[in-house]
Design goal:
The complex is a heterotrimer of chains A (335), B (332) and C (317). Chain A contains 10 helices and 12 strands. Chain A is of the alpha/beta class. Chain A has an 8-stranded mixed sheet, sandwiched between helices. A 4-stranded antiparallel sheet of chain A has the order 2-1-4-5, covered by helices on one side. In chain A, β4 and β5 form a beta hairpin. In chain A, α4 packs across α5. Chain B is an alpha/beta fold. Chain B has an 8-stranded mixed sheet, with helices on both faces. In chain B, strands 2-1-4-5 form a 4-stranded antiparallel sheet. In chain B, β7, α8 and β8 form a beta-alpha-beta unit. In chain B, α5 crosses α7 and α7 packs parallel to α8. The two termini of chain B are 30 Å apart. Chain C has 13 helices and 2 strands; from the N terminus they run ααααββααααααααα. Chain C starts with a helix and ends in a 7-residue tail after the last helix. The chains are: A alpha/beta (335), B alpha/beta (332), C mainly alpha (317). Chains in contact: A-B, A-C, B-C. The interface between A and B is large, with 45 and 50 residues.
Chain lengths: 335, 332, 317
C-alpha cells in the first residue's frame, strides 16, 4: 500500500519492551499469585510510512503491546523511542506532544465512541485536548475530516447509536486523524465489521495513509487482511515476537512452526471441503504460567530437549533481509 | 403476504425440508420480517452452509427450526417438515422431545452458553436424562465418554469441573459433546467458531467433520465467514436481508457465483495472489428491515441493477447444475 | 476459604471495638444522665446528693476513662447493670433477644415462602395481568408505613373484631404454646407485610435477568421443559443475588422490628433499644446497640459465604 520503509531514523523504535500485570488481589492477607507476563521482551522498528502488522491469537500480548506503545500503559521495562526521543519515564506534560502524534483506533466500534456526545464533538475532542485552533477552526477541521472519511456535515450533530458499525469506525478514524498524527495504532479495526464493510474501511485506511503519509501499527488476527494490507508482519506468541518478516516473505517462506500452523489453520475459499489433516494440537497456554524455554514447545511438531531448556532468540532467518525468527530449528526446511 | 415463491422440489432423500419460512418481529417501528420466505432442505450426512452478514436472518432461521425464536419474534408462516411432521404445528411438549434428541444446536459463545453453576458433566448428562436415555449414573458415564470422543483430555476429571475453568476451545468441544450425546439426526451450528482463535477454530472444524463422518449427522452450518463455509459445506445458501439469494453446491457457488451479492462477497475477500491495491468493495450498507427498497433488496448496492430490478423482487429460480438464484441479472 | 473467614472474623472484632467506643461516646454526648432522671423522680434531692451520686456511679469522669472501665469489665464478662430494669444487662438482654429472634425468624420464613414464589411467577409471565397484580401487592407492601399498618391491624383485629390480642407476649396467668402463638400473629403479619414486597421484587428482577441468559436458551435447545428450566437452571442462578440481599438485610430487619415491637408492646431487642435510650440507661443501650452491630456484621459475613458457596466462579483466598 505504500512506498515501504524509509532509510532515516525509524519513526518508532521499541527495545526490550516488557509489560507485566500483577495477578490476583493484594491486601493484608492475600498471597502473591503471580504475574501476567503480557508482553515479555519485544523489540522492533517502524519506519515512516510503513505498515507493520502484529498478528497473534488470544494471550499473545498484541493488544497490550499496542496500548503500551500508545502510552496507555507504563512499561514495566524496556524503551520506546518515538521520532528519536525516549518516551518511557517522561512525565505527563512532557508526553503530551508525543501523544498528539500517536493516535489509536480501537476494535469495538460500539464502545469506543462516547454515546453521549454528538459525533462532531467526538471528532473535535482531540483538538480541544491539545488546544488546537479556535472554535470556528475546529469546526471547519471536523467538517473536512468527516468528508475525508465519507461522512456528511449533517452527520456531525447525530449520535453514535444512529450509525452502523462501519460508519462508527469511520468516525473513529476521523477522530484519530484530527490532530495530524504520524503514527496510527489500529487494534483490530475491522474485525467487528461485516465482510462487505471491511474492505471499504481498509480501502479508506489505505487512501488516508497515502494522502497523509501515515505510519500504521496494525493489529489483527486475520492473516488474509494482514497479507493484503501490511508491509511487514510480526507474529506474536505469549508475549514475544516469534517471527518477523516482510509480508510476502512471511507467507512464502515461514520459518517458525507457529507461523506455519497459523497460516495452515486459516480457512481459504476454494480449497473444497476439509479433509482431516495436520491441525495444531493443544490449547494456548496462559500468560500466568508460560511453559519453560520456548513457550511454543508443548504444541510444536519440531520440539526437542533444547526447546524445553532455552528460549530461542529472534535472529535472522530465511533468505530475505529483515526476516527474523525465534526458533532453534528455524533453518530446517518447512513441512 | 405472498405464498412461497419457490417450488421446493426438495430431493426425496431430504431429512429436513423448510418451505417459505417467515419470522416477524414486532417492534416500535412496526412488524419487521427478519426471515421472509426462506426454503431449503437438509440431506442426511451432509452439511448445508448458511452464509450472510448481520441482519440477514440466518440466526433467526436456525432458531426458528427449533422454535426458539425469542419474543418479540414470532414464526408467522411456512412449514418445517421433519420425519413426516410439520414442526411448526407441533405442541410444545412434542417439540421438547425433538430438541436435543433429534435436532440439536450449538451456539456461538461457549462462555455464556453453559450454566455457570452446574458442572460440565451434569449439563452434558442432562441431555440424556431429559430424553429418558439413561438414569443418572449411566448418563454421567455416557457424558464422560462423549467428552473423550470430542478430544478433551482427562474426561472423567473434566466432567466435574465448571465451565469457567475451561478454555474457549474446550468449552466448544463440550458443547458439541452435549449436542451429539443423543445422536441427533440434525446438528445446527450457529457461528460455532467465530469466537475462537484461528488454531482452535481449525481443531473444532476438524472435530465437527469427524463427528459428521462418525454419526452421519446432517449439519446446518451458519457463519458470516465465507472461507469457513467453503471448507465445511457440501452445499451453500446465501442470505441477504431475510431472503435466500443463491443456493448451490459449494464448489460451484464459490468458483462461479451467479448472484451479484455472492460475487461481491467473494471478490471483497483479501486473497492469496491478489495484488496489494484496493479491494473491490460492495458500496453502501445492508438495508434496514424497516426501510427495504422496492423490488430487489440488493438493488441499491448492485452494480447490475436496472429499473426492472428496482420494480419487482426476483424470485428464487432454478439454474443449471442443481442451483438456485434470485436475480434477474444472474450470470449465465 | 479458612484464611478468608479468619480475616473477616478479625475485621469484625475490630469493627465491634471501634463501634463500642463510638456508641459509648455518642450516648455520653446525649443531654442528661441517670442522675438527672433520679433528680426528676425525687425533687427533694439536693445538689450535694446529686454530686455524691455522680461520683459514686462514676458519671463525672471523662469519657475515655469511663469507656476504659466499661471495656475492661466487659472483656471480663461483666456487661454492666441495667438501671431501668434493675438487673444485670445480660439478664435483660437475652430474653429480649430470644423474642426478637422468634419474631424475625417467623417473619423471614413467611416472607420468603410467599415472596420468592410470587417473584418467580411474576417473572415467568412478565407484563401479564398476573404480573401486574403481583407487582401491585409488592409495591403496596413496600410503600405502606409499618407503623400505620400495625395500628390498622390492631384496630381491625383487636378492637373491632376482637379475635387477636393487641400486644404483649402472653396472657397473664395463661400459658401454653397456642396462647403465645396468638400474640405473635399480628406482629409477624405486620413485619411480613412490610418485607414481602421487597423480596418479591428482588426475586422477580433476578429471575427476569437470569431467564435472559444464553444458557437458558441452551437448556431449552436440549429439550428441557419449563419446570426443568426454571428449577434446575434459572433458580440456582437467580438465588445468588437474592440470598446476598437477604443476608445483608439482617441488620436492617433487626432494627426495623423496633417499630413493630413498640406498637405491639412486644418485648424484643428493638423495644429494648428504644426504651433504654429514652430511659438514659447507658449500659443497656450500649450493649443492645452493639448487638445490633454484631448482627449486621454476621449478616454480611453470611452473605459473602453464601455467595461463594452458590457461585463456583467466586473463590476467596
Amino acid at each position: 500500500m505504500t512506498a515501504g520503509p524509509s532509510p532515516e531514523t525509524p519513526l518508532l523504535e521499541v527495545q526490550g519492551l516488557v509489560k507485566h500485570f500483577p495477578a490476583g488481589g493484594g491486601g493484608l492477607f492475600a498471597a502473591d499469585t503471580g504475574t501476567v507476563r503480557a508482553v515479555d521482551g519485544v523489540s522492533f522498528r517502524l519506519g515512516r510510512g510503513e505498515t507493520l502488522a502484529l498478528v497473534g491469537e488470544s494471550g499473545c500480548g498484541k493488544t497490550t503491546l499496542a496500548r503500551t506503545v500508545a502510552l496507555l500503559y507504563a512499561p514495566t521495562a524496556g524503551s520506546v523511542r518515538f521520532q528519536g526521543r525516549e518516551l518511557t519515564g517522561l512525565g505527563r506534560r512532557d508526553l503530551k506532544p508525543a501523544r498528539r502524534r500517536i493516535q489509536m483506533i480501537f476494535q469495538d466500534p460500539y464502545s469506543s465512541l462516547n454515546p453521549r456526545l454528538p459525533v462532531g464533538a467526538i471528532i473535535a475532542e482531540p483538538l480541544v485536548i491539545h488546544g488546537l485552533g479556535g472554535r470556528a477552526e475546529q469546526r471547519d477541521r471536523v467538517a473536512m475530516l468527516a468528508r475525508q472519511v465519507g461522512l456528511g456535515a449533517a452527520d456531525m450533530d447525530r449520535y453514535p447509536h444512529q450509525f452502523s458499525g462501519g460508519q462508527r469506525q469511520r468516525i473513529a478514524i476521523a477522530r484519530a486523524l484530527a490532530v495530524e498524527p504520524s503514527l496510527v495504532i489500529a487494534d483490530e479495526p475491522v474485525s467487528a465489521l461485516d465482510v462487505s464493510i471491511q474492505s471499504q474501511v481498509l480501502n479508506l485506511m489505505g487512501d488516508l495513509q497515502a494522502a497523509h503519509g501515515l505510519t500504521y501499527l496494525f493489529i489483527s488476527h486475520d492473516l488474509a487482511v494482514v497479507r493484503h494490507f501490511a508491509d511487514r508482519v510480526a507474529v506474536m506468541y505469549l508475549g514475544r515476537i516469534v517471527e518477523e518478516a516482510p509480508a510476502d516473505a512471511l507467507f512464502a517462506d515461514p520459518r517458525h512452526p507457529y507461523t506455519r500452523a497459523l497460516i495452515a489453520a486459516q480457512p481459504v475459499v476454494g480449497r473444497g471441503k476439509r479433509r482431516p489433516g495436520d491441525v495444531l494440537p493443544g490449547d494456548i497456554p496462559s500468560p500466568l504460567r508460560p511453559p519453560p524455554g520456548c513457550a511454543f514447545h508443548p504444541r510444536c511438531p519440531l520440539a526437542a530437549d533444547i526447546c524445553r531448556q532455552s528460549a530461542p532468540a529472534l535472529e535472522a532467518a530465511g533468505g530475505e533481509a529483515g526476516h527474523r525468527a525465534a526458533c532453534h530449528f528455524k533453518d530446517e526446511a518447512g513441512p | 403476504m405472498e405464498p412461497a415463491r419457490e417450488s421446493p422440489n426438495a430431493p426425496s432423500d431430504a431429512i429436513l425440508e423448510v418451505r417459505g419460512l417467515e419470522v416477524t418481529f414486532a417492534t416500535d417501528r412496526g412488524a419487521l420480517k427478519a426471515v421472509d420466505g426462506v426454503s431449503f432442505a437438509l440431506k442426511p450426512g451432509l452439511t448445508l452452509g448458511l452464509v450472510g452478514e448481520s441482519g440477514c436472518g440466518k440466526t433467526v432461521t436456525a432458531l426458528a427450526l427449533l422454535r426458539l425464536v425469542p419474543p418479540p419474534g414470532r414464526i408467522t408462516g411456512g412449514r418445517v417438515l421433519f420425519g413426516g411432521e410439520d414442526l411448526l404445528a407441533l405442541s410444545e411438549r412434542a417439540m421438547e422431545d425433538i430438541r436435543g434428541k433429534r435436532i440439536s444446536m450449538v451456539f456461538q459463545e461457549p462462555t455464556t452458553a453453559f450454566n455457570p453453576v452446574l458442572t460440565i458433566g451434569d449439563q452434558i448428562a442432562e441431555a440424556l436424562i431429559i430424553h429418558g436415555g439413561a438414569g443418572r449414573a449411566e448418563a454421567h458415564a455416557a457424558a464422560v465418554g462423549m467428552l473423550d470422543k470430542v478430544g478433551i483430555p482427562d474426561p472423567a476429571e473434566r466432567a466435574g469441573t465448571y465451565p469457567h475453568q475451561m478454555s474457549g476451545g474446550m468449552r466448544q468441544r463440550a458443547m458439541i459433546a452435549m449436542a451429539l450425546i443423543c445422536r441427533p439426526d440434525i446438528l445446527i451450528a450457529d457461528e460455532p467458531t467465530t469466537a475462537l482463535d484461528v488454531t482452535i477454530q481449525a481443531q473444532i472444524l476438524d472435530l465437527m467433520g469427524a463427528m459428521q463422518r462418525e454419526f452421519g449427522v446432517a449439519i446446518l452450518f451458519i457463519s458470516h465467514d465465507l472461507a469457513v463455509i467453503s471448507e465445511m459445506a457440501d452445499e451453500v445458501m446465501v442470505m441477504y436481508a431475510g431472503r435466500v439469494v443463491e443456493r448451490a453446491p459449494a464448489d460451484a457457488l464459490l468458483a462461479h457465483p451467479l448472484h451479484p451479492y455472492t460475487q461481491g462477497l467473494i471478490e471483497t475477500l483479501p486473497r492469496h495472489g491478489v495484488g496489494r491495491g484496493r479491494l473491490p468493495a460492495i458500496p453502501g450498507t445492508v438495508p434496514d428491515l424497516g426501510a427495504l427498497p422496492d423490488g430487489c433488496r440488493f438493488s441499491d448496492r448492485c452494480p447490475l441493477a436496472d429499473d426492472g430490478c428496482r420494480a419487482a423482487d426476483p424470485p428464487l429460480t432454478r439454474a443449471p447444475g442443481g442451483r438456485w438464484v434470485a436475480c434477474y441479472k444472474a450470470a449465465p | 476459604m479458612t484464611r478468608f473467614l479468619a480475616t473477616r472474623v478479625a475485621q469484625s472484632v475490630i469493627v465491634l471495638a471501634l463501634m463500642s467506643f463510638a456508641i459509648y461516646a455518642l450516648i455520653g454526648l446525649m443531654p442528661g444522665d441517670p442522675i438527672d432522671l433520679m433528680i426528676s423522680a425525687d425533687p427533694k434531692m439536693t445538689p450535694e446528693d446529686a454530686a455524691r451520686l455522680r461520683a459514686l456511679y462514676g458519671v463525672d469522669k471523662p469519657v475515655v476513662e469511663r469507656y476504659a472501665n466499661w471495656l475492661i469489665a466487659a472483656l471480663g464478662g461483666d456487661l454492666g447493670y441495667s438501671r431501668l430494669y434493675a438487673a444485670p444487662v445480660l439478664d435483660v438482654l437475652l430474653p429480649a433477644l430470644g423474642n426478637t429472634l422468634i419474631l424475625l425468624g417467623l417473619t423471614l420464613v413467611l416472607s420468603l415462602a410467599i415472596g420468592l414464589p410470587a417473584g418467580v411467577v411474576a417473572a415467568l409471565r412478565p407484563y401479564s395481568r398476573t404480573d401486574y397484580a403481583i407487582n401491585l401487592f409488592a409495591f403496596a407492601g413496600i410503600s405502606v408505613p409499618a407503623f400505620w399498618l400495625g395500628l390498622l391491624l390492631i384496630i381491625v383485629f383487636a378492637v373491632i373484631l376482637g379475635v387477636l390480642p393487641a400486644g404483649g407476649t402472653e396472657t397473664v396467668g395463661g400459658a401454653g404454646f397456642w396462647d403465645q402463638a396468638k400474640y405473635l400473629v399480628l406482629p409477624v403479619a405486620n413485619l411480613t407485610l412490610a418485607s414481602v414486597g421487597g423480596h418479591t421484587r428482588y426475586m422477580r428482577a433476578a429471575m427476569m435477568e437470569t431467564l435472559r441468559q444464553d444458557y437458558i436458551r441452551t437448556a431449552r435447545a436440549k429439550g428441557a421443559g419449563r419446570a426443568r428450566v426454571v428449577l434446575g437452571h434459572a433458580l440456582r442462578n437467580a438465588m445468588i443475588p437474592v440470598v446476598t440481599i437477604i443476608a445483608l438485610q439482617f441488620g436492617y430487619l433487626f432494627s426495623g422490628a423496633l417499630i413493630t415491637e413498640t406498637i405491639f408492646a412486644y418485648p424484643g431487642m428493638g423495644k429494648l433499644i428504644f426504651d433504654s435510650i429514652m430511659g438514659n440507661d447507658f449500659n443497656l443501650a450500649l450493649v443492645a446497640l452493639l448487638f445490633a452491630t454484631l448482627v449486621t456484621l454476621v449478616g454480611n459475613l453470611l452473605a459473602d459465604v453464601a455467595y461463594a458457596w452458590l457461585d463456583p466462579r467466586i473463590a476467596y483466598r
